[in-house]
Design goal:
Blueprint: E1 22-32, H1 35-41, H2 43-64, E2 67-72, E3 76-81, H3 84-102, E4 113-125, E5 128-130, H4 132-143, E6 149-152, H5 153-159, E7 166-173, E8 182-188, H6 200-236, H7 250-256, H8 262-268, E9 289-292, E10 295-299, E11 311-315, E12 318-321, H9 327-335, H10 356-370, E13 374-375, H11 379-387, E14 439-445, E15 467-471, E16 487-491, E17 499-501, E18 504-505
Parallel strand pairs: 4-6, 14-17
Antiparallel strand pairs: 1-3, 1-4, 2-3, 4-5, 6-8, 7-8, 9-12, 10-11, 12-18, 13-18, 14-15, 15-16
Helix pairs in contact: 1-2, 2-3, 6-7
């Protein structure tokens, strides 16, 4: 975004029609890296791509996270939020979506944003915002690397225990036109990075200190082994010439040679990583399944445009997971080096922060390990199973009942993470958490309506499959997302903290 020219600086005279409204806000400033080079290479194409990203990604993400887009600046944007947590979540979602969009593009043609986030008292106008809080956010963005989110210390203090990510401290930085140094952190959006708040320098120092202590301990052990032998030899033969002093040395050397000997025996014994390639050595924990008889039902509803038109679908018999896939089940796949990350959380909690591609990895792991045709359920199968043979708004009736599902206004289980699987009553088919808990990926590509959808219960795999369908709603959503007909779409390769899945099995 360059200099502060993109918005008013402190030197601009404010309008003279009275005091300007001020507010404490979390400010996101985003800027496209190498924008001039991209425009020089393909001016019209770059402009169209940037506008599409703003329309399809940046603006919806800001709205979804309860923020306000103040303005776009050609090569960037400014947004403000009441919540620092939502500001950082929005920033992570934007960057992870861009990773998916850029995956198939050559590196020199990718549109990558640098994002800076700061918390400050700002002056707000209908089409602009300014003040030191904005200036600091802009300076942080200028330091950030392409594709990264950097935040100020003020933001970090507000979100450090609330957002599913880790942080790397970059220390205090002196930034242009700001008197005091600004503490800056780099956001690590992967769930594996949770709790990683120490910087790399600190970790390096700890590693070096550990090595030093090991060397000292080895030296002390060597001294204790050799010193008594030298003393005994000198006491027995006090007149031995120095030329024959090496004679007593073989015992220490012989005593020392067995120390490496245990390593071959240890190597021959099973090590934690050795069995990983041989999945047959350890029985695979298969998800518990419920067999579903085939049948016909009216799929969709008139409650939302994406759920129309209501149409008749015929489902063939299949089996589906009684629960969403759990952390323990997922981590067995990760231990087999098939699934791409180790999940955090309690073993009996549903796994989260999973992309559609991640879910496909787990299904492939089950297929390879069990020789059974595991897969994700189709969207039609999921809704048929979620309804449990009913056609009401929820599977239990037309009115919300407390304690029937895990959502924001469904009862007393509001939390920073989903409840363990099976915490709520099963539906008439014996399935748990088919509404609330975690958003659940299904096989189908995303379409904004059901116009042209298959009527045989198969996956809708035609069209633009850069996004896939999510069902269920999560513990973060309100009750309208718990409806069996509710549907949404999300980028195929992007992880998000509320996304999970369950598996299905063909006969």
């Amino acid at each position: 975004m360059g200099e502060i020219r993109n918005f008013r600086s402190g030197n601009d005279e404010p309008p003279s029609h009275g005091p300007m409204p001020r507010r404490l806000a979390a400010i996101i400033v985003g800027d496209i890296a190498s924008y001039s080079r991209l425009m020089q290479a393909d001016e019209e194409g770059t402009h169209v791509r940037v506008k599409r990203i703003e329309r399809d990604l940046i603006q919806p993400s800001i709205v979804e996270h309860h923020g306000s887009l103040v303005k776009t600046t050609g090569d960037g944007f400014i947004a403000i939020f009441d919540s620092p947590v939502e500001a950082v979540r929005c920033s992570i979602v934007i960057q992870q979506n861009l990773i998916g969009r850029n995956a198939s593009l050559a590196k020199d043609t990718r549109i990558e944003y640098r994002i800076g986030v700061n918390l400050g008292d700002v002056i707000v106008e209908p089409d602009d915002v300014y003040g030191d809080g904005v200036n600091i956010a802009t300076r942080i963005e200028g330091i950030a690397e392409p594709g990264q989110v950097y935040i100020s210390g003020a933001i970090y203090e507000q979100i450090k225990h609330k957002v599913v990510c880790g942080y790397e401290s970059l220390g205090d930085r002196k930034v242009k036109n700001i008197t005091d140094p600004v503490r800056i952190y780099r956001v690590l959006p992967d769930a594996n990075a949770v709790g990683t708040t120490r910087g790399r320098r600190e970790n390096t120092l700890i590693f070096l200190l550990s090595i030093t202590l090991l060397v000292i301990a080895a030296g002390v052990l060597w001294y204790l082994l050799t010193q008594p032998i030298r003393t005994n030899e000198q006491a027995a033969t006090p007149a031995v010439s120095p030329s024959v002093s090496p004679i007593p040395q073989p015992p220490p050397r012989e005593a020392a040679t067995p120390t490496p000997q245990p390593s071959p025996s240890l190597a021959s014994s099973p090590s934690p990583s050795a069995p990983a390639p041989d999945q047959s050595a350890t029985p695979v924990r298969e998800p518990e399944l419920i067999a579903i008889r085939g049948g016909s039902f009216a799929m969709g509803s008139n409650d939302d445009p994406t759920e129309r038109p209501v149409h008749q679908v015929t489902i063939k018999p299949f089996s589906i997971g009684k629960y969403p896939v759990t952390v323990q089940e997922w981590n067995e796949c990760a231990a087999a080096k098939v699934c791409g990350f180790t999940a955090i959380g309690k073993d009996d909690a549903p796994v989260t922060n999973v992309s559609w591609s991640d879910a496909q990895q787990y299904a492939a792991y089950l297929v390879r390990s069990t020789k059974k045709p595991y897969r994700l359920p189709t969207e039609a199968e999921w809704e048929y199973a979620a309804r449990g043979g009913t056609q009401t708004k929820y599977w239990w009736g037309d009115k919300l009942q407390q304690g029937m599902a895990g959502c924001k206004d469904c009862g007393d289980l509001a939390a920073e993470q989903p409840a363990k699987v099976g915490s709520f009553k099963p539906n008439p088919f014996g399935l748990h958490d088919m509404g609330g808990g975690v958003d659940q990926w299904v096989e189908d590509c995303w379409h904004k309506t059901y116009q042209g959808a298959p009527g045989d219960g198969s996956a809708w795999s035609s069209g633009d499959c850069s996004a896939h369908v999510l069902r269920s709603g999560s513990w973060k959503n309100d009750s309208r997302y718990v409806r069996p007909s509710n549907r949404d779409g999300y980028d195929t390769n992007v992880r998000y903290p509320t996304h999970g899945f369950r598996v299905a099995l063909s006969p």
